[in-house]
């Protein structure tokens, strides 16, 4: 175990030079640099097994708890899941923690792509994102902010590029809450869609927070696999899971 942790740390320090092709397909499209004073709670989740490496986003909602998508956790033998805190702004000194506590999943029904991860030690110098005011639910047409780490280019016919480099800044993108969703998302719990012309997110942005009025109303879950900007982004509706989140974390 000690050797594996050392190897993991070396991989994280090497950064983009060890990214797999799969991880490079997963980027914000049409975004802009997030302000250095916003989204300090953004977490980079890194899953490593030998030469394989995958990325996700997450949000610090409590000094000891991260909210993210359930598919951003690798439970199979040989995988190591690490939370990298203070990745934004880039001038911050990162805090990397190997996640050793079992994840807490939502178990009412099936296919809920939302999960809570407990840190090994509290993070006291990062302000967590606030939970939503669910008396003020999102409405179709409301503008929300999504974010992730990645490039902004696409190929012919809106194809995802495997060669887009990881951005030097966290990328933000504004989208509208959408009325329609692809049929495939109906099996994935409580979901709403977001969309905007020529803007999109990709798999590596999964798990990142969807923000409205500086509160986390959603967790990025589902995107189109091959082409960008074709369908709304599938977002887990945090208000539908608020009681579970509060009971698990102790937040009020």
What does this structure look like?
The chain has 252 residues and is mainly beta. Helix content is 8%, strand content 31%. It is built from two helices and 14 strands, in the order αββββββββββββββα. Strands 1, 9, 10, 11, 12, 13 and 14 form a seven-stranded antiparallel β-sheet that branches. The longest helix has 13 residues, at 2-14. The protein is globular. Mean pLDDT is 81; it is low at 1-26.
Distance between the termini: 37 Å
Unreliable residue runs? 1-26
Structural class determined from secondary elements: mainly beta
Percentage beta strand: 25-35%
Compressed to H and E, one letter per element, the order equals HEEEEEEEEEEEEEEH
The count of helical stretches stands at 2
The radius of gyration is 17 Å
Helix content: under 10%
Shape: globular
The total of beta strands comes to 14
Q: How is the main sheet built?
A: 7 strands, antiparallel
The average pLDDT value, as a whole number, equals 81
Keywords, separated by commas or semicolons:
disordered N terminus; seven-stranded antiparallel beta sheet; single chain; 14 strands; mainly beta; globular
In short:
The chain has 252 residues and is mostly beta strands. Helix content is 8%, strand content 31%.
């Amino acid at each position: 175990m000690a050797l594996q942790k050392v190897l993991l740390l070396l991989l994280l320090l090497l950064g983009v030079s060890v990214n797999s092709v799969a991880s490079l397909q997963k980027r914000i499209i049409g975004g802009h640099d997030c302000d250095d004073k916003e989204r300090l709670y953004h977490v980079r989740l890194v899953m490593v097994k030998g030469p394989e490496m995958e990325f996700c986003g997450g949000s610090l909602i409590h000094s000891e708890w991260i909210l993210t998508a359930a598919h951003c956790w690798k439970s199979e033998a040989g995988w190591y899941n690490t939370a990298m805190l203070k990745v934004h702004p880039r001038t911050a000194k990162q805090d990397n923690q190997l996640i050793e506590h079992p994840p807490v999943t939502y178990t009412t029904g099936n296919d809920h792509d939302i999960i809570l991860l407990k840190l090994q030690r509290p993070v006291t110098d990062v302000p967590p994102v606030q939970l939503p005011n669910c008396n003020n639910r999102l409405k179709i047409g409301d503008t929300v902010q999504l974010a992730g780490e990645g490039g902004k280019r696409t190929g012919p016919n809106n194809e995802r590029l495997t060669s887009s480099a990881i951005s030097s800044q966290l990328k933000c993108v504004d989208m509208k809450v959408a009325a329609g969703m692809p049929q495939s998302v109906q099996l994935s719990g409580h979901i709403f869609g977001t969309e905007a012309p020529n803007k999109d997110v990709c798999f590596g942005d999964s798990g990142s927070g969807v923000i409205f009025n500086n509160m986390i109303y959603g967790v990025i879950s589902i995107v189109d696999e091959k082409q960008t900007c074709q369908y709304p982004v599938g977002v887990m509706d945090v208000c539908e899971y608020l009681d579970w989140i509060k009971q698990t974390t102790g937040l009020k």
